Amino acid sequence: MRILMINPNTSEGITQRLANAARATMSADTVLETATASYGVPYISTRTEAIIGGMAALEILAERHMEFDAAIIAAFGDPGLGAARELFDIPVVGLAETGMLTACMLGGKFAVVTFAAALGPWYNECVAWHGLEARCAGVHMLNGSFSSIDDVQEEKSEQLIKLCNSVVADGGADTIVLAGAPLAGLAELVRDRVSVPLVDCAQAAIGQAETLARLRPASASAGSFRRPAAKPSKGLSTALAARIAHKTTLPHSS
Amino acid sequence: MRILMINPNTSEGITQRLANAARATMSADTVLETATASYGVPYISTRTEAIIGGMAALEILAERHMEFDAAIIAAFGDPGLGAARELFDIPVVGLAETGMLTACMLGGKFAVVTFAAALGPWYNECVAWHGLEARCAGVHMLNGSFSSIDDVQEEKSEQLIKLCNSVVADGGADTIVLAGAPLAGLAELVRDRVSVPLVDCAQAAIGQAETLARLRPASASAGSFRRPAAKPSKGLSTALAARIAHKTTLPHSS
Amino acid sequence: MRILMINPNTSEGITQRLANAARATMSADTVLETATASYGVPYISTRTEAIIGGMAALEILAERHMEFDAAIIAAFGDPGLGAARELFDIPVVGLAETGMLTACMLGGKFAVVTFAAALGPWYNECVAWHGLEARCAGVHMLNGSFSSIDDVQEEKSEQLIKLCNSVVADGGADTIVLAGAPLAGLAELVRDRVSVPLVDCAQAAIGQAETLARLRPASASAGSFRRPAAKPSKGLSTALAARIAHKTTLPHSS
Amino acid sequence: MRILMINPNTSEGITQRLANAARATMSADTVLETATASYGVPYISTRTEAIIGGMAALEILAERHMEFDAAIIAAFGDPGLGAARELFDIPVVGLAETGMLTACMLGGKFAVVTFAAALGPWYNECVAWHGLEARCAGVHMLNGSFSSIDDVQEEKSEQLIKLCNSVVADGGADTIVLAGAPLAGLAELVRDRVSVPLVDCAQAAIGQAETLARLRPASASAGSFRRPAAKPSKGLSTALAARIAHKTTLPHSS
Amino acid sequence: MRILMINPNTSEGITQRLANAARATMSADTVLETATASYGVPYISTRTEAIIGGMAALEILAERHMEFDAAIIAAFGDPGLGAARELFDIPVVGLAETGMLTACMLGGKFAVVTFAAALGPWYNECVAWHGLEARCAGVHMLNGSFSSIDDVQEEKSEQLIKLCNSVVADGGADTIVLAGAPLAGLAELVRDRVSVPLVDCAQAAIGQAETLARLRPASASAGSFRRPAAKPSKGLSTALAARIAHKTTLPHSS
Amino acid sequence: MRILMINPNTSEGITQRLANAARATMSADTVLETATASYGVPYISTRTEAIIGGMAALEILAERHMEFDAAIIAAFGDPGLGAARELFDIPVVGLAETGMLTACMLGGKFAVVTFAAALGPWYNECVAWHGLEARCAGVHMLNGSFSSIDDVQEEKSEQLIKLCNSVVADGGADTIVLAGAPLAGLAELVRDRVSVPLVDCAQAAIGQAETLARLRPASASAGSFRRPAAKPSKGLSTALAARIAHKTTLPHSS
């Protein structure tokens, strides 16, 4: 099985972290490839940046979807996920979605815990978009700045453990989703120091992508995620314009 | 008062329709200018196209926001609205938002009625994003294709009147929002043939933009729509990158 | 355009404050007249008083609605609003409704902030009646008594600023609706001292009344706000009984 | 135990029907007295009439509450119920409330079935006010006019049976609340002809009033139904003004 | 009228407390009998124990339902209530259900207050199952252990009073449901020391069982609580298997 | 990895169907074992039967959980799932839960489609228990009886395809969960004849059990699914009583 993990941010270091975490738990026969956005911001934390990252993710998928059995949009907040799901035939999942849905099977309510206050508004919109507010015990953020997005996991791990435990003690959370691509791989390092199960989003994502690919779901020809009819456009990337127009392009050739 | 109406679609004809409808009801001292997206699709009907249109709207705002007291993102579905609201200091409203909120003052529940089935999924997500599901009596679409987006209003007006009345007869709707930029100006032509009040989104939008501009709201320095901190980026339009980085660019000069 | 602002309380001083605030932002061609309830309480703060004030507002509207293009029920809590909307042909809006819906266009969630604990229960019911709970970050009240309802704004302004900022700091509110007719005009005086945009309900109301009047919505002949069929009554004011019975009375002559 | 049943409509015939139905199931030691509104409309079917009826109910309670252990506001829609509950010390219940809550103990979802389309909007608002939308499978009304409110029960009973059964067949309802004071006493006559349990609101109301009176609940000195502080008023009935002002009046002497 | 009160726990002492509280307020002509589970745990506090207690309650009902006009499942959390309601013809109510619905008639929102933290998760699920989350101001539990379930009421009464008052002071609760069979009878002892009305669940339950029995509701032949079709089984108690198979067994003879 | 699939019904034939479907998509290194309830009914379709089946599932888990990395309660409706999750240390998932959560990643709203009307009430409660009502486009059932539970899949497959397509055509569903253990394996046979993706619950369950086992979540020591404190009981199976009492029993030896 071949899975594409797309980092809609521009940080190659984060792409590596995500892939490492996913590879630690994926099936023996899964081949994981990665792609990193060529434009945008180092890490998505706002609604504006989610639009930019969503655009980048769609362009990457337009170029490469034909080579894979499933794809992961590997930023919490799932930029472009709904668009990708309507536009392409392979299963596409998001980091937030798979983290939250996996957490749902380990308890009643999950809390989302992340490393920076700036991420709150967009993460909250993401929970709502997924219709999971009834299962969510809040999005909780550390305050304060950090030195480097690549190393924020190490810098903040002690504070994150503390925040996780205080969120649980305040009531309402049965599990915790460690949110944000920079935190990939952290859950297994700190699992014994937090009072409820932790979900690593990269590991949840690879497991879910595998599960969906094995189900071999047929494409929708009806419903709200059926592929839209062909449409002309102007000014878009060659591959994306072709996909929207229902024209064929060769993979990697655009 | 100066207001910018942004059409995030590429159809100049629709831009003109929108402006005409708005000018028919705006205040004597309001100056309305328009802008049309330079890339994307003729009319937005999918999640994918909403990301593209949202990007286009943000780029236009980045270039021109300083010249205006308020702005309107003039496509139903409000592409890029949340992003625009967090990124810029002037009030920015959307066609869907203003149509629906205005309808709220004319009855309990509003129905959204539009001209093509393809618009349903994205319009439904828009209602949910605005937190207005408790006030919405459904999104209702005509089936069937149309000849030209520029003239769909004339082509479909009889069918739309019929659909409006049947939606009301089936129960639940106290008002109807005629949705989709191509329908701008229709409400006043058919108002006497529908059994509940109709809302013209372009006219609602200009009224709301004027009201907000007159309130002169202070910018948020807190809350989920405070302006995000400065951030580097790569590969974005000059004006948008500058706005994200908290740098100044001259209007129209990017 | 002619707009009637009805104060369903008996305080003439509050009527004056409301009109002053509205006149500061209304359109050049708008004529604003006011009316004050001849019976009831100085300011409405309970469910009981809302029934009394609603009755008073309906009687005033029954006498004067024919002279105006739109009307405002100028008490937060909107006593009698639903009744007025079903009974009369002109657009009628409420102070709470217009304040909250206007706030919706300046951010995601609004908090309601007011000057006395006694107002909480009724204001909360008002938010729910409007179906806006999904957008509301709570009704927040000052504790403690006040000297005079006419001057409570000046007496409490410092405490209100503090409460607004603490409500925002505690999280969840993107804007604040300054609630209660006695606070009309306060927003613009303190706008620079609160961390999110403030909405002045009297100014929101006049803007919304103008917008609705310009849309010239047709009367509903269907839906839950269609005018009820004629009915006999006994013991009601002449004008109200006539309106309920679908009989004509001359304006001002009852 | 002494219970007061208040008909906020002006129809004495309906008052009698209500009392007869209640007396058929009340406890041996309960004394039931009735009161009928001296002004207003023959039967409440609109938001406007609910304000009028609520005012009438409050005035009756102000005069007579001291003589009783509990009171019933005997119109579906419960006009003035919230106000009565905050203003008086004895338990006060409504016909709609007790019908719906009793139905909750006989199944999952209840449908509300009534005799005229005009009643729909106000009944729906009543369901929402009680926070029971999650338990309600809709408000269903007969179409068509009727000859006399006093005899509408007999005139429409066959149509009501048919509507009840079709509502259940269409799915979602486990019980049916026969709504509207004119239908008091009907449930037991037709119980064998409807496929789910029927609730007679007058009988539910007397049972609930008895249960509450036996619990002897203390008055609230906190919470949103605590008695409001004393307040001056003008132009109100003597007894109501006295109650609002925390002054004593002799029962029946106003 | 004959009513069966079933304690699905194994504590005879609690059964006695429940019966004493109910007898203090029941009607003169009501005969109350009790039954205590022969297997399971001394008091139900978890989801696991609720399944065990639900099974025990169903077995008792299968043996004895024919002797009674109504039955009460007398553990907060209402184990087996939905099953009992679909399987038997007499009205069956639960302690939680009747406590909460009765509280609904004394104010807007009720809080649930109980004596041990272990009860929280199951009680919260019970509130949700009843569709009463919109009326519930939270489930609040004492921390700390207790000496004996039979005497926990006396041991904890002072702490419970304190918790009730602090829950009200923190806002949102208009009434309090004292939850858990071991607290039966406490409400009337402490009613003057809590700032909002208290509901005794055993007393609410007996009142509701009487009210339902007097309504003599017909059995449902449709809806989601119609009696299921006959079905074979293996390994169940004689009476329960017979009831599921639509076979007759003699009361008390299994 | 070792996974236990528990059929809480007594039909061995269904157990075999479930295992076959799961084995078709599980990972190469997964070992799947099965267990079938020794008492209860051939297939669970009511609330009563869900309690019985939940009891049976808990007893099986109490005996065998120590041998496995994860377990599946393999009946749609997930009898005993919440109890199992709080009582045992390994991940336990349900057929309904995993079918619905997997469907969430293939579209916005899923419909549940099953083979008999009797299943509706319990399945609807299951959707609500999981907090997934916001994602569910209804539970849809075939009418009519069937010959044998073991062969109902073959008997009804044409009718089920038709129902699936009509549910989608009526709007609202993006995916379909084929619900009920007897339908295991059907999805891949009919996938090309239904207009939206189908989810096979047995295949979703095995994928989710594998994903959770690979995450190796720590046990909760806090939150609503922490293991309850030790408690005495009487009359329960040896293994279940031991687990509740925090005592050790040897696997398979009870």
UniProtKB/TrEMBL annotation, chains A, B, C, D, E, F:
GO MF, one term, reads: amino-acid racemase activity
Gene3D superfamilies tied to this protein: 3.40.50.12500
Name the protein family: Belongs to the HyuE racemase family.
Name the UniProt record assigns to this protein: Aspartate/glutamate racemase family protein
- The organism encoding this protein is Parasedimentitalea psychrophila
